């Protein structure tokens, strides 16, 4: 029964974020009537039922003495849109794109192909591209914010899993988008110079996010525009791929990691991959399997196991490859050009 | 993260039921290739990823020695369409109607009104009716099967919670649909004569389900057609309302229970309500809150607490009212006309 109810719990959360409930409750605790006014909702009984459901899901709490609603600590951290750890972008992306895309899961299984066209009438050719994610300005910005938020909750653990992280001097994040991995890396290593490498259309988003960091961080990050399959890569002694490989099939992944291998210096060059790892027999964790099916309905890619990433990297020459389960939504795989 | 992923888990289950995966695996355990043939799915890798997700959700299992997939015991019981305890109808209803209806939860909260029209372009007047559930023959049949399946998993516990159930001789289930409560009641009490009271269009469904029972049961059940708000009720010493009151507002509920009160004999007459109870402060259980919001997007009703049902029944004269938490998806509330 709890699996059947899953979509109802998701939609309750999506609706609460969409209404900006947590933004209002992070400033002050509020009575039902005051909350109704702030949210511009005229029907108190309907709002109260909705708030009860949010309480049942432990998203908010009600003080029975003063009858005021407030956020839980975890909602203040992840569900307030201005919080540095906010997941509201990721939730918005799930609510506005993925929720409907998943109604086409049967088609995706039948065709082994993404389902943007059937779901949203988007026009694209035979081959998967990111045009579907970027089908209009709002969707593009929401996807950026989604990936930024998710990255912020995971990348510190990814970077921390690399014990020789301080040895790197130059860093390039391929498909680096808003720069959340570059920012995290520069915070963790005060001598690092970072490049975000992504499509020209992404630059405005990256600039916006980087400008919000302190001068010490933003002065060490530059954006270099390019298509990572078509254009030459910059030079760097650490390349990162944060949630990039899971968008592509094995053939394209191999082309990309080989290109990175060649761009690395002979000595101390490394590649760091941030992805959610499936266990070896692919029977979990549930969230990785769900992300794998999300890749099936949305991209040409898939989630992989540690041995699969090892094989991919070994094939093009990487050595000393290790996987780290970080305990967050993203794990880490590192490989070196030389022993 | 697990709340965000909820809809993905739901859709994985919905898709597995839609593909009739569990029907195939209940007959025999199957290799990936054989399953692909039976399901007419040409892409083995896509199917395998989907099956891995089903394993992660514990819906199926894989024997690592012979590489064959099979159902878990719980899937055999609830997810096989011919199982007597099947929930496949309920799952189909959630998949085909409720999943999309819930995308309009923000509108439902804003308007305090059901959202069939906005979701499916159905035409209805200002007031909620069941025409939306019965908008075409398939949807009507699916809803019948949904309620039947859910009833079968819960009604035995509901009936068992009434310790003097053997005292009743005549029984009328208001809005009795497929007769699942009438069938359960006749099984539990061998002397009971039962009437299913529901709209004329429902009779064909009831007849179909009743004809599947043994002669001993079906000979004691009749269908009487009528609209429970407009037409006179039959005579019976036990009236039941199984998931009926949660479809309607307090005013209509009171009209209905008062009508039942009057139709009962002075001595030993009783009303039995089967609904999911909210705890007194309405902060759970989650599944009851989710059902409450489902009532908000789909009907004019709501889920209620034990004190709310007590008040509703006391107002029209019922006495000795008791609530029973059955531990299943439906709880029981009983009230008597005399002490």
Automatic annotation (TrEMBL), chains A, B:
Residues 102-319 form the O-methyltransferase C-terminal domain. The active site is at residue 246. This is Acetylserotonin O-methyltransferase. InterPro entries: COMT-like, COMT_C, COMT_dimerisation, SAM-dependent_MTases_sf, WH-like_DNA-bd_sf, WH_DNA-bd_sf. Transmembrane segments: none annotated. It is an enzyme of class 2 (transferase). It comes from the Eukaryota. Its EC number is 2.1.1.4. The keyword S-adenosyl-L-methionine applies. Catalyzes the transfer of a methyl group onto N-acetylserotonin, producing melatonin (N-acetyl-5-methoxytryptamine).
